[in-house]
Design a protein that fits this description.
Strand order of the largest sheet: 3-4-5-6
Helix content: under 10%
Radius of gyration: 18 Å
Number of helices: 0
Order of helices and strands: EEEEEEEEEEEEEEEEEEEEEEEE
Oligomer: single chain
Length: 242
């Protein structure tokens, strides 16, 4: 995806690229915030965009809107085709929705009732029933549900909040950060700084401006922090950075 909403694909490892059916022009002023592939069907992909939540069932050839409005994030319930989305309503109330029928119907899970509220989501295969939500009301509150998004409960205020990630091997370990990276060992109650954006022992030096966090599905101990300085590799079991 690109800032102008032109979603492309590659079948040769990235050497060449071609447009999909989701192909907007810059003058349309649309953007794609997040892409997620159905873990049970690679032909099904959702695109969270500023012009609706789009879904393809044929690998990107054609797309339809399955949820109206601007969307900031999307996550699949691990191991299923059930999907969570965060709708972004700048002047209204941004809320979290869940679909268990492929995007045909949606249930609202939250009731934040805040303007200018940009939400991000996190899930973990260590507990597929768990959903974490970062709310941006100025204090960066963290909400967690252990029942598939129901009964979202305030846990703490995040120290920084550009990214939110739950360990794939230990549901109680949560990561967040922006300039620096923090970890919570106790389900978001307390936070410890892991890195600093320039040389400042004993903290590991990791570049600022965190953008995304992912893990290696073939080795969940390997976590990758993506930021404006590149991609940093973190081995969770040993706390080693590379």
């Amino acid at each position: 995806g690109t800032d102008d909403g032109n979603l492309q694909y590659s079948t040769d490892g990235g050497a060449t690229w071609a447009p999909t059916g989701l192909n907007w022009t810059l003058s349309q002023g649309r953007a794609i915030s997040k892409l997620e592939m159905d873990p049970l069907n690679p032909q099904v992909i959702y695109a969270a965009t500023t012009a609706g939540l789009y879904r393809t069932t044929n690998g990107g050839t054609s797309w339809i809107v399955v949820h109206a409005g601007d969307h900031s994030d999307i996550e699949f319930e691990p191991g299923t085709s059930n999907v969570y989305v965060a709708q972004y309503d700048y002047w209204g109330s941004s809320e979290v929705y869940r679909s268990i029928d492929g995007g045909t119907t949606w249930n609202v899970l939250s009731n934040f009732g805040l303007q200018y509220n940009h939400l991000i989501l996190a899930v973990t295969p260590d507990n597929p029933a768990k959903l974490a939500v970062r709310v941006s009301d100025g204090n960066h509150p963290l909400y967690i549900s252990t029942n598939y998004g129901s009964n979202l409960t305030y846990v703490s205020d995040l120290p920084e909040d550009a990214v939110l990630f739950i360990s794939p091997t230990n549901e109680n370990v949560i990561y967040t950060g922006y300039m620096n990276i923090y970890a919570s060992p106790d389900n978001g109650i307390t936070w410890n700084m892991l890195t600093y954006w320039y040389y400042n022992p004993p903290y590991e030096e990791v570049h600022a401006d965190q953008r995304n966090v992912v893990y290696n599905p073939l080795n969940p101990d390997k976590i990758y922090f993506c930021n404006d300085g590149g991609v940093y590799h973190f081995t969770e079991s040993t706390y080693n950075w590379a």
